[in-house]
Design brief:
Layout: H1 2-47, H2 54-78, H3 90-93, E1 99-108, H4 113-123, E2 127-131, H5 133-136, H6 140-151, E3 155-159, H7 169-173, H8 176-190, E4 196-197, E5 205-207, E6 210-212, H9 219-227, E7 231-232, E8 237-238, H10 252-265, E9 273-279, H11 286-300, E10 305-307
Parallel strand pairs: 1-2, 1-9, 1-10, 2-3, 4-7, 8-9
Antiparallel strand pairs: 5-6
Length: 315
């Protein structure tokens, strides 16, 4: 019995050994297989073409987007219609040739004329005053405004009639000879040296061989003046400012844009020249004076804009 037990124990121990040995062999084989696979996978990675770093790929995409964006912005800028008082496009649009601004002020001397004289001096620009003979005779104060104009080398004085047609324009122009004599009287009374006139209540041009008539009732008077050596000056745009409140019909930006567009598009009476009409009594208030100063500053942004005398207006 004891022998039997001894033999059985040996068999069991041998079986355990064999089982352990089998497990070890199996484990070794599995590890070897796994190792083989890892080696094969490494070889597979080495054989694939190298990929770009993800950061580099993203940077490349950003560069492409930036390039497309720049192209789009360039195309957009080509079609932009630039506007605004603070003009940032001066060098892009207005450097081809000189362009001339004629600031003209009608109906002086009046309260406001003295401020125009001061603004012209302060800004160092040329302005043009179309005077009425009768106004100069109304008071010593108004006459002194005329003298200020005449003594300022930055102000030219021209003829706007003696009686301003008594504000009855159709009646005034119904007799061209009488109207002509009214302008002659104003010239003598004011001591004017330039044969340049503006017809009251009429936007009529007659310079050289060119003429433009808005209302026919003033055409015969303009013709008679032209025959006697006068230049008849109209205007391209007008600015109205309430003399009491200082409120304008157009903002500085609106008027500036209008004048700039006339020059850029060549739609003024004479290309590269624009004549602005306004009136002396509109600048009685500080507000009106500030508006005019702001307009001048806006126009002075353009290095090729010149403030000029009407006597130099091209034929």
């Amino acid at each position: 019995m004891c022998k039997l037990i001894f033999v059985m124990r040996k068999l069991v121990n041998s079986g355990v050994v064999w089982v352990g040995l089998s497990i070890s062999i199996f484990g070794f084989y599995s590890c070897n297989q796994s190792g083989t696979n890892k080696v094969q996978n490494v070889g597979a990675v080495d054989s694939m073409p190298p990929k770009k770093d993800s950061l580099i790929a993203v940077q490349d995409s950003i560069s492409k987007v930036d390039s497309l964006r720049k192209d789009t912005i360039t195309k957009m800028e080509e079609n932009v219609d630039y506007k605004g008082t603070k003009d940032t496009t001066v060098l892009l649009t207005d450097t081809v040739s000189p362009r001339y601004i004629y600031l003209t002020f009608d109906d002086g001397p009046l309260n406001g004329s003295q401020h125009l004289d001061s603004i012209a001096t302060a800004k160092g620009i040329k302005i043009n005053a179309f005077l009425i003979g009768n106004h100069d005779k109304m008071s010593k104060k108004l006459h002194s405004f005329t003298e200020r104009y005449k003594n300022n080398p930055l102000v030219d004085c021209y003829n706007h009639s003696y009686w301003h047609a008594h504000n009855k324009y159709s009646t005034f122009y119904s007799n061209p000879q009488t109207a002509f004599e009214d302008f002659e009287l104003a010239e003598q009374s004011l001591g004017l040296t330039h044969k340049i006139v503006r017809l009251p209540g009429r936007n009529i041009w007659y310079i050289g061989d060119r003429k433009k008539v808005d209302l026919k009732s003033g055409a015969s008077t303009a013709e008679l003046l032209h025959q006697n050596g006068y230049k008849v000056i109209g205007w391209d745009c007008e600015w109205k400012i309430n003399g009491v409140t200082g409120k304008p019909d157009l903002s500085v930006n609106q008027l500036y844009t209008q004048m700039k567009n006339l020059l850029r598009k060549g739609t003024s009476y004479t290309k590269n020249n624009v004549v602005l009409l306004t009136h002396d009594n509109m600048y009685q208030t500080k507000k009106g004076q500030r508006l005019l100063s702001d307009l001048i500053d806006s126009l002075k942004q353009h290095p090729n804009y010149r403030f000029e005398f009407v006597r130099n207006y091209p034929q």
